[in-house]
Amino acid sequence: MIHKLKNWPGAFASALSHAQSKPFIWGENDCCLFACNCILAITGVDLARTFRGYNTANEATAHIAGYGGLYELVSAICREHGMPEIPPRQARRGDPVLFEGGFGLTLGICVGDKIVAPGRNSLSSYGILKGLHAWRIE
User: Where is the DUF6950 domain (predicted)?
Assistant: First the structure.
């Protein structure tokens, strides 16, 4: 089971600030790597270590398809790290949330009553009520 580091609020704020004005780029700042980078800042654990290195939508899609879909991929990785699935309305700052975004099913991070994820040119925010699935980081 992964846990939040003692200094996680500052590290999380720094990760969000770093990603704030970055455009969506496959393999660099897409929804999965953004969420994993935030979780890395919060916990010190890289949930994306097994799939970093892709550079295109086709490569990302092929990896996701190997799990059966984005929900199945995220769920498997979270389960492997002891992160229980919770109702999205119970998500707290830093918890990953799967939601229906502007590009379809999207992985983001809870920042209170909002979910943030990479948009075309910068981070975009969505209401937490758009959440379909969420996982708890203790």
Answer: 4-137
Using CA atoms, how far apart are residues 90 and 14, in angstroms rounded to an integer?
24
Q: With the CA atoms of 79, 1, 39 and 135 taken in that order, what torsion angle do they form, in degrees rounded to the nearest 10?
A: 40
Q: Distance between terminal CA atoms of the chain?
A: 8
Domain count, the chain: 1
**Domain assignment present for 86:** yes
**Which residues span the domain enclosing 105?**
8-135
What are the tokens at 123? 């981070």
> Which CATH number belongs to the domain containing residue 108 in this structure?
3.90.1720
* Full-model pTM: 0.95
Tens place of pLDDT for every residue, the chain, 138 residues? 899 999 999 999 999 999 999 999 999 999 999 999 999 999 999 999 989 999 999 999 999 999 999 999 999 999 999 999 999 999 999 999 999 987 789 999 999 999 999 999 999 999 999 999 999 999
Domain contains 2: no
Strand ranges across the sheet with 104-110:
85-86, 131-135, 96-101, 104-110, 114-118, 123-127
